[in-house]
């Protein structure tokens, strides 16, 4: 009702004001005769009405007020989280498991790398067509199958490494001796990260956790075990999709981490025998010093052997061969990126010896159909797949224990602390966990 009255009052006042103004002006100019004594009152009424109108306008106008801010439905907040007051972009409390992630590479470039690997020439030994390094994990289905394989009791490499880490975790914390931020180079299924983050002391204002992985899907699934530890202002999670093995990206990663932590010490984690899964593991090790500052450390977890022989290489391959979940993970890259069926080939595990270095396990898919095949890439391009041709899916190693320190020294790294756990005395296979620093 009040809102309806406002227009009527406005126009009534405007009419009276206009009438008063016209009569007053006509009287002052002598066009209209006004009874003596009333002209003064008429002028006074006009002046009062004019003053009232001006005052009303001034009261309604906001001459010096800033324009109102426009807010999004869920505003992002900036919070100073570390002792040097670096700002962290924080999502509001939302349902549905949101993840704010830095994407370091175009997904189209990764897809082109997959295509390039599958266009390589014929090889009967698994050295031609390939899914190199992290490409075997790229995509939703390979990620799901990898997470399932990590929790398979018949895939002992991961389980034994995890148990070894749980046993030596207090020693690791004692060796660090102070709060560290944590960068996980290859997040995996997140179990080691969650156990470490739950124990690491928190810096004065926050502990930054940077899960790094080639696969965005792996990042999302890998940080799930860590969500219970994520506390705004205490433990901040900053996921980054990046191929940390590339030197150019390693430099950018270091700059990004420094933007958050400044001069605080950082612990980089390369655990779960991740180093062994790179074709050029030596080059990856040489990239690590570009990440480390004098105050930083690398937590390195790898598999080792005390001896090298063809028989032991076969036994190393058997550790992977007996896990159906791991086999499903390997073949998922083929099914996702080609139109081949598993019935057209066979999955093979081949163990060999890298002289004075490691037991090397190569896993590949071979065309065993007895005839030349052709498969199509997702964008439609046909690729010839002759009989006995192969697609390499994955590689792994067990490093010779005696050569580990020498290998690290050649990469300008030195061991600050180490622990060795032999889980199979018959084969001399075991798990090594080290704290490594940049050589002086």
Structure, described:
The chain is α/β, with parallel strands linked by helices and 440 residues long. The chain folds into 2 domains: 8-55, no CATH class; 77-440, Rossmann fold, CATH 3.40.50.150. Helices cover 37% and strands 24% of the residues. Strands 3, 4, 5, 6, 7, 8, 9, 10, 11, 12, 15, 16 and 17 form a 13-stranded mixed beta sheet that branches. A two-stranded antiparallel ribbon has the order 1-2. Strand 11 (345-354) and strand 12 (358-367) form a beta hairpin. Helix 4 runs antiparallel to helix 11. The longest helix has 27 residues, at 2-28.
Number of folding domains? 2
- Derived from helix and strand composition plus strand pairing, the structural class reads alpha/beta
Range of helix content: 25-40%
Label the CATH architecture of the largest domain: 3-Layer(aba) Sandwich
- How many beta-strand runs? 17
Q: What features would you highlight for this structure?
A:
440 residues; 13-stranded mixed β-sheet; two-stranded antiparallel ribbon; alpha/beta; 12 helices; Rossmann fold
